[in-house]
Amino acid sequence: MQIVILKNSAEVAEYGANIFIKQLQSKADSVLGLATGSTPVSLYQSLIRANKEQLISFKGVTSFNLDEYLGLKGSHPQSYRYFMNQQLFDHLDIDKAQTHVPPGDAENPIQACVGYEEQIEAAGGIDIQLLGIGRNGHIGFNEPSSGLMSRTRVKTLTKATIDDNARFFSEGEYQPHLSITMGIGTILDARKVVLLATGEKKADAILATVEGALTAACPASALQLHKNAVLVIDEAAASKLSDRDFYKHIEAENQKLLARLAK
Questions:
Q1: Known catalytic residue: 138?
Q2: Which of 8, 84, 100, 219 has its CA at 20 to 30 Å from residue 259's CA atom?
Q3: Is 67 designated active site?
Q4: Is 136 in the active site?
Q5: pTM score, two decimals?
Q6: Are 134 and 163 in contact, with CB atoms under 8 Å apart?
Q7: Catalytic hit among 138, 142, 189, 226
Q8: pLDDT tens across 234-257, in order?
């Protein structure tokens, strides 16, 4: 697990965006795993700019989103399909037929989960998966107690997650308590994983992910098993890491090595 500690959220977004830009420059038909929430928005804005400046193209890209609220149609303003269209897809040269979000309005959600796994497999697997992290360590909607090898499935949201997401819903508006989410095992199948985290509220979750035990109590700790996982975090999110100065030193040495190899 590579730990990259940067000064602030703007630097985190820029660093993360550059990882995705390099991915698309090296493989134009990449399969991207994408995430929703406030953390990825700045990264998506950087990708939109890079696309408009013709540094990258999304014409050959296929994407799969991590999760969706169960019970919401894609046209609902609080659905993750709507979010992705508004924040990213509507602004790219991407074929929307190649953008996949779990169907929140599926008549048979269980079968829809099986179908989503089959779609990912048919696409050749995910090349690079973007993640955020919840205060309780959840990735996607894999809440604490999720199986570390779980696959796409219907998941009940915890009160903490419901409370955190309540700000996106109007008072009295229906807020789903169920979701469809990629499983932790599905996430670990991605060839590369990039997790972004910013702010002091994520510090406990980052500590548990990086220095804690591998446990279902912190779903993100499963990234300790991944051979190509990168955690890009700001100083606030890294504030409780005991070895943060060491991580900064290692990243600086990595950058020096990459610069030498590029010559």
A1: yes
A2: 8
A3: yes
A4: yes
A5: 0.91
A6: no
A7: 138
A8: 999 999 999 777 777 677 767 776
